Amino acid sequence: MPISHEQAADQAWQWLEAASRFSETQDPERDGVTRLCATQEHRAMLDALSEWMRGLGMTVRQDNGANLIGRHASWNAAARTLLLGSHQDTVPNGGKYDGIMGVILPLALIHYLRESRIELPFHIDVVAFSDEEGTRFSSTLLGSKVLAGTFDNTMLDAVDDEGTSLRQALIEFGCRPEAITGDAYPAEEVIAFIETHIEQGPQLELENLPVGVVSAITGIERHRLTVHGLAGHAGTVPMHLRQDALVGAARVIQLVDTLCQQTEDLVGVVGKIENAPNGVNVIPQTTTLSIELRSPDDAIRRQARQRLFEQIEATLAASGLSFDHSLTYEQPAVPCSAWLIQVLEGAVQDTGIEPRILFSGAGHDGLAMQALCDIGMLFLRCKGGVSHHPGEAIAPGDLTRALSVLENVCHRLAAHG
């Protein structure tokens, strides 16, 4: 007997609640969810997902990167495959929906398609990526790099806080790391990768919209900057003669904030500060800080970088201070495919929702998957824009609407050929 989108979304809600219990924490409402790659919590999550997938008539396999993949087969055995999914892992004490919602909502879609006897001319593979956050081994996008064929074997040498290598952890998890290269999807067999994810920001809620279509996944760059001054006694050196590194760093922070406030499609933060000698009565001699800039447009980000460091150089020189810096990380922006943006936008409109296009200020598995295939993303409103926190929350009704959008996307892709 056919079921409604609401009934399928209700099942997804139950699965999400169950998934939150596979955590190092005892109380996900209070302490959030902590589920790291290749741990007993990861195993428990995959065991539950496998059971749910098989209950939907899907075939299930785990690859050598600890990804779980469930297939809803098409009537056409030779058909190509639509990839849906997200990551199962969390940050420490994270929320109940970041990542895992994008695995479980596609399972609700399969539930709806199966019960409604809707057949499609393509396979749907639902993927629970093993490690997107990089919390345990400080190496992000592990699972998606495996599927995309861009996994770097040097990642296997990364170790966690207990000294266990990624290689050893995967072996203990039942994987064969030496066979990872064979787990990549052949590009010609894949239609696209579409990820549904909570927005992790406030825009959809501010505009009273349940879902939004992602235009691009942000580019990111990080710098380590050290301001050099001169230490001295805080009670004896006159203010006008001081070379206070921390005061200089404060001016740098203001420059970063002002630049980002005044530049469209640019955000940034100074998130980490180290001060020396860090005494209560000593003028700071060196202050080291992190600078991060993000934009969906790499040209905007790089132009902003140039302006920022020109301003920093002039400002610190005027204060008798010097600095040095290094670029510690850079990830180019990844645009979502134009045709998939159109498909998602049309599906949102057909569902009776005003289409809203926005970019993702956070990184996602699409950063790796774009090396394999065209990518698209659907954002789902989250309360207060809160994410990576136990207070992360979504509305059940939004889950229903997102499910309706995904079904519409499937029909559009079927018609697209």
Question: What's the CATH first level of the largest domain?
Answer: Alpha Beta
Largest sheet composition: 9 strands, mixed
Number of domains: 2
The overall pLDDT average reads 97
Short précis:
The mean pLDDT is 97. This protein has 417 residues and is α/β, with parallel strands linked by helices.
Description:
The chain has 12 helices and 14 strands. The longest helix is centred in the C-terminal third of the chain and has 21 residues. β1 and β2 form a beta hairpin. Helix content is about 35%, strand content about 20%. The strands form 2 sheets. Strands 1, 2, 3, 4, 5, 6, 12, 13 and 14 form a 9-stranded mixed β-sheet that branches. α1 runs antiparallel to α4, α4 crosses α12 and α10 crosses α12.
What is the fold's blueprint, element by element?
Blueprint lengths: L4 H15 L8 H4 L8 H16 L3 E4 L5 E5 L8 E7 L13 H15 L7 E7 L12 H7 L17 H7 L17 E9 L4 H4 L4 E7 L1 E10 L16 H18 L4 E3 L3 E4 L9 E10 L2 H21 L3 E10 L2 E2 L2 H13 L6 E4 L5 H4 L5 E6 L15 H21 L1
Parallel strand pairs: 3-4, 3-5, 5-14, 6-13
Antiparallel strand pairs: 1-2, 2-4, 6-12, 6-14, 7-10, 7-11, 8-10, 9-10
Helix pairs in contact: 1-4, 1-12, 4-12, 8-9, 10-12
